[in-house]
Amino acid sequence: MNRIAQRIREDHLEQAGRHDSPAIFGGPPGDPGLVGPGSVSWEIHADPAAISIGGLGAIVLEILHPSVMAGVQDHSTYREDPLRRSRTTYGYVVTTTFANTQAATRLIKAVHGVHSRIEGVRPDGVAYRALEPELIGWVHTCIPWAVMTAFELYNRPLTVDERDRYLSEQAVIGRMAGAEEVPETAAELEEYVEWMRPRLSVNAQTLEFFEFLLADLPGAQPTGAVVRASRQFQVGMGLGLMPPWAGRMSGFGSSTFARRFLHRPIFEIYARTLRWAYGGPPDYARLAYERAVPG
After folding, report:
1. Residues 21-40: pLDDT tens digits?
2. Residue 80 clears pLDDT 80, i.e. is over it
3. 128 - beta bridge partners?
4. For 275, which of 32, 114, 207, 285 is 20 to 30 Å away at the CA?
5. Could you give the CA distance from residue 41 to residue 197 in angstroms, rounded to a whole number?
6. What is the pTM of this model?
């Protein structure tokens, strides 16, 4: 691999984390994991660009639920480790999809254990628990929704059947995590999102989180107005994948012109460059295929 490709890949791994452990993605020969080869999930999640592009939009969508935001504000270390949530999201997506059955199940149980200790009271006086099925369902749904959208825009369109298969595959993981209302088809996804919209809002905690996204990080260069404008653009790009109402609600909305003639060309270049840098399936997908389809 030439130096440019290696540098691009290393930069991506710094943000997404390294997911190449044979103990996790290898394992018993013939073990399909929770989803298995031949699935739509294996194709979509083998594209690092789809997960990376969809990840930011998913994170912002998640915290539009005030109970999710309260949990992040009260229990997260995002200020001390700004990249932790993106690495965690990326790792959860690829591990639950490609890891051997034991490792994937262990991760879901571990996350469930962490969430069992997350509870509190929102600023509006409403109590929250991270293990509430509604919250688990919303957080779960935001991720495949955003990743699927990114894949369709920057890799290839999916048929209705492929969208339905993907959501059904991912619903298995959502239910294992404790969700109850999990869309399994594209039609159910539309209905679910409309059902959830009245429960979403932006409050002082959300605005504080957004301000953190836009503010200078320690050691960041350049600083001030330049980095703020750059981050505003980046977050707007991420949310540009999602429905316009999400952009309006969050304050990171962008025009149709910006999405079509600025965001999309930039993301297309990014996606093609990242896939070129990897030169093939990421390590987690390669190890999983060697495990699930031995010989």
Report:
1. 999 999 999 999 999 999 99
2. no
3. 120
4. 32
5. 26
6. 0.91
